[in-house]
Amino acid sequence: MKALHEREGIFVIPNPWDAGSAKILTSLGFEALTTTSAGLAYLLGKPDGLAKVTREETLKNAGDIAAATYLPVAADLENGFGISPETCAETILLAAQAGLVGGSIEDSTGNPDDPIVTFELAVERVKAAVQAARSLPFHFTLTARAENLIHGRPDLKDTIRRLVAFADAGADVLFAPGLKTEDDIAAVVRAVAPKPVSVVMGLGSSDFTVNSLAALGVKRISLGSSLARAAYGSFLKGAEEISKYGTFNFANGTVPYSEFNKLFGQ
Q1: What strand order describes the sheet that includes 33-34?
Q2: Does residue 58 surpass a pLDDT of 90?
Q3: CA-based angle 226:62:60, to the nearest 5?
Q4: What's the confidence (pLDDT) of residue 114?
């Protein structure tokens, strides 16, 4: 994981939500994987972003994904599953024990009425996570996330302030989900340079491409829950067709049973 962030050029790190989706992504030639909190929440029949998924559930799922692939796997560790810096540090150590080589800590609270951790505490949390990561016998790639933009706080100045502080605290990668324009992405890249910046695609319509993001200086592209939503969306449309119309056209053109059996048997 460390080498991918240090080499020249951009890379895509897609987000499996279970062992099967991890095997599919591995077969397509991607070089690393990172989990999705929303994908896991939906797998468990829970909403995302409201602290409904436990740390134990997250690490069990991430460990299953890591065991299903030879690729390096990082995890969406949400807010560290606790507000205190000590809990964030503990989560990093437990993630490493689960077979992960990277993970992200975000500055969200899980409380919709007060969604973002204060600046000072957010920085202390990242410092504690960095210290835990550096205590490990291998390089654990720590991503620090500033969540303003996806929690109804379109404050780019504060977002950049947080990312710069996280970079200074030792985070390996900086990430602000919800960046929408070339100017905003470029501003983040400039602010935290030479630290690498990750962006997420698939949250909505976008004209960005891998090449255009590379031109802006982005190092890493993740896909968040978009692949999981695409899969569940196809399932939902197929089930709705049967329920509403009594037809089965959804199955036309689906990947054959034998092909999935072969892929998952590898």
Answers
A1: 11-13, 220-222, 197-200, 173-175, 141-145, 102-106, 73-76, 33-34
A2: yes
A3: 130
A4: 94
Average pLDDT, the chain: 97
**Pairing of β 73-76 and β 197-200:** unpaired
Contact 198, 218 (CB under 8 A): yes
Helix and strand counts by DSSP (H, E) for the chain: 11, 8
- pLDDT band per the 50, 70, 90 thresholds, residue 63: very high
The neighbouring-strand residues paired with 116 are 108
> Is residue 11 packed enough to be buried (19+ CB in 10 Å), middle (13-18) or exposed (0-12)?
middle
H-helix or E-strand containing 217?
none
> 204, 179 in Cβ contact below 8 A?
no
Q: How far is CA 78 from the centre of its chain?
A: 9
pTM, entire model: 0.96
Q: Are 136 and 168 in contact (CB under 8 A)?
A: no
Tokens 């919800």 belong to 178
Distance between CA atoms of residues 40 and 65, nearest Å:
11
Question: Can you tell me whether residue 220 is helix, strand or coil?
Answer: strand
Q: Of 46, 44, 41, nearest to 76 (Cα)? A: 41
pLDDT in tens, 70-89: 999 999 999 999 999 999 99
CATH 3.20.20.60 assigned to domain 2-225? The reply is yes
User: Whose structure tokens read 């983040």?
Assistant: 188
